[in-house]
Design a protein that fits this description.
The complex is a heterodimer of chains A (112) and B (122). With 112 residues, chain A is mostly beta strands. Chain A has strands at 9-12, 18-23, 36-40, 47-50, 64-69, 72-77, 86-93, 101-103, 107-111. In chain A, strands 1, 3, 4, 7, 8 and 9 form a 6-stranded mixed beta sheet that branches. A 3-stranded antiparallel beta sheet of chain A has the order 2-6-5, with no helix packed on it. The N and C termini of chain A lie far apart (28 Å).
Chain lengths: 112, 122
């Protein structure tokens, strides 16, 4: 059971828009800690996709965007492409005794 | 360009220990946090602990307290994660990851190692 809750899977056709939610609590996202998003292609290490809730590292297409409100955050992907098919993880910091950094359980994006 | 290169795959017996290394190049090693994150087969990411080498003190997830030791050698720009009392549930890919902001623990992970598969089997 992950501290941050994500849907196990989402799907969309090429060119469409999808969103992935990440729900936390008052000890992590709701406490004001930033949310970061990672993309993990099959058999590879995670790659930073969005940092500080809504910022894209250099080289990440602007088709990817992030937002945060209250105890939740979202990742939006527009103009879906086949190469976007991957697992996506949200991450935040948690001030409770359960640990420091926490991740969502991951969302598998399938491009139909 | 920062690179984190991890040691190779390991096969261990239950009850034994494993030590995984993570060698950094292309940046300032000592001032950036290195975290260890593991991923069991078909599962999600799990933070184990981290260290800022220049400070030398590691922080651990409660789940791994007493079983994991994270250290860093500034002279070789290498971080280590040692996990003891291994059990089958510890079979996973272990990643090291670097914090993006200098001297900060609460920050995103901008560079990741390639991962080290640790298999625990009798």
């Amino acid at each position: 059971q992950s501290v941050l809750t994500q849907p196990p899977s989402v799907s969309g056709a090429p060119g469409q828009r999808v969103t992935i939610s990440c729900t936390g609590s008052s000890s992590n996202i709701g406490a004001g800690y930033d949310v970061h998003w990672y993309q993990q292609l099959p058999g590879t290490a995670p790659k930073l996709l969005i940092y500080g809730n809504s910022n894209r590292p250099s080289g990440v297409p602007d088709r990817f965007s992030g937002s945060k409100s209250g105890t939740s955050a979202s990742l939006a992907i527009t103009g879906l492409q086949a190469e976007d098919e991957a697992d996506y993880y949200c991450q935040s910091y948690d001030s409770s005794l359960s640990g420091h950094w926490v991740f969502g359980g991951g969302t598998k994006l399938t491009v139909l | 360009q920062v690179q984190l290169v991890q040691s190779g795959a390991e096969v261990k017996k239950p009850g034994s220990s494993v030590k995984v290394s993570c060698k950094a190049s292309g940046g300032t090693f000592s001032s950036y946090a290195i975290s260890w994150v593991r991923q069991a087969p078909g599962q999600g990411l799990e933070w184990m602990g981290g260290i800022i080498p220049i400070f030398g003190t590691a922080n651990y997830a409660q789940k791994f307290q007493g079983r994991v030791t994270i250290t860093a050698d500034e002279s070789t720009s290498t971080a280590y994660m040692e996990l003891s009392s291994l059990r089958s549930e510890d079979t996973a890919v272990y990643y090291c990851a670097r914090g993006s902001r200098i001297l900060a623990t609460v920050t995103d992970f901008d560079y990741w190692g390639q991962g080290t598969l640790v298999t625990v089997s009798s």
